[in-house]
Amino acid sequence: MRTLALLARQVRYEQKLYWRSPSSAVFTFAFPILLLVIFATLNQGTSIRALGGISYNQYYVPGIVAFSVISACYTNLAIVLCFRRDSGALKRLRGTPLPAWVFMSGNIGSSLVVSALLVLLTTAVGVLFYGVAFPGRWAALLLTVAVGAFCFCSLGLAMTALVATATASPAIVNGTLFPLLFISGTFFPVPASSVLGQIASLFPIRHFEQAMFAVFDPGRIGSGVEPRALLVMLGWGVGAAVVAVRRFRWEPTRG
Amino acid sequence: MGAAIAVVGLRKSYGSTEAVRGISFEVAEGEVFALLGPNGAGKTTTVEILEGYRRRDAGTVSVLGMDPARGGARLRERIGIVLQECGIEELLTVEEVLGRQAGYYPRPRPIGEVIDLVGLRDKTGSRVRALSGGQRRRLDLALALVGNPDLIFLDEPTTGFDPAARRNAWDLVKQLGGLGKTVFLTTHYMDEAQFLADRVAVIAGGQLVAEGPPGSIGGRDTGAALIRFALPEGVAVSSLPLPARPDGEYALVESQEVTRCLHLLTGWALDRGIELRGLTVTRRSLEDVYLEMVDR
Questions:
Q1: For testing the chain B interface, which of A3, A91, A96, A253 should be mutated: the one with the most B CBs within 10 Å?
Q2: What is the count of structural domains for chain B?
Q3: Is A110 inside any structural domain?
Q4: Is A53 helix (H, G, I), strand (E, B) or coil?
């Protein structure tokens, strides 16, 4: 009981830190919404012949829903934790009785809160302003978001373990993310058979995008769950979690 | 009283550099103990091993009866740590960081009490970002105290402080001694060790070179004292009643027998109606002793 209360308090303090930090709140929260509005507005009324003539936004908005989870989990955790490690704040926490897993869970919990808000917001904007269909597959949405959040929180923590300094972290985190976002078909479809599509299929982003597309796809019958895509994400999540647990450092590199 | 800290034959290397080369010491409960040494002497390595941040290569270490390498949360519940230059989440307020930290301990002190103790009452609602360097250091101390620890580690608590801020910090550490806490501090300031510590150990090149109360360490209390006075007009050093050497306009007498020497000297001066201007008696300062020891 005491541990649960501790965890809840930890999430609350992480939330305070998140919303008070302009770089977190602007970059990881506002940015996905900005991308959504820009591209959805630019491409309103166009359709994608390769996908049977569905509207661009029916394709694009689920991708941005997935991206918003990546932003709240991977980008946010990796950059914020690198900066807190360099400042010595993590080392200080390590000197208290706070269990490491409660600290990590507090960060993950806070990322889940942000993810949930972003998923609801981007979905609502897509449905209300851009004519996107959401066939009410709440269970599939919840499952897909949960697997995605696990995968990308793990990757964020693993990245924190691998990046040496905070100054390098934004470049490395975004430098790994954005090329993959493009070749994974976030902004326009990339055929699975193409070289880029095949490279993208090795990484979890494309699978997350496709799983989210299935959740929203009005032409599809069934639950909207893409088991194969979710399994790939789970695999990446477990692998990254192992790296994070083994390699996580609480102290700045120099010292 | 039992030992709060007991260290025997502690060793630690980084690559081929031996940072700590077999040191042993004890710190009694309720004692203020200073590990004094120049930069790079092995102070921070030693204190971080005691705090559980680093693993030792050899030796035995006991902190509050536990091995810091394995003590985990049970040990950390009972110690407070002030690290060298260590960040605090800048976007939280003083009250928030203290409240968060207090929640990590089973028996925390009331936050308001700790805030008053370190004199941050008017900064309670301020964000950490808005604090001055000295105020941050006081918050550091407050964070170390809020868990109501039995033992407090202070790693160079006043490095980079201006004289007034140092005085304030010293007063605070003195108060900790008054609360019955055991304090382990590292410093490279002689005056800090002298003012704060019940006992000092001097570390140089990874080894302890001396240990004892600051007043008597390195034979300060038994070693020769220095008598100094302005050489009276028309008096040669050779005509003084005891062996002396000139030092500009002054004469210096170095002796183990201060009472006898002063008696001789003042008797001689009174007989001749001479005033010994600028007469002082000094022992070797802790700084002299220290510099000799770390030079070896």
A1: A96
A2: 2
A3: yes
A4: coil
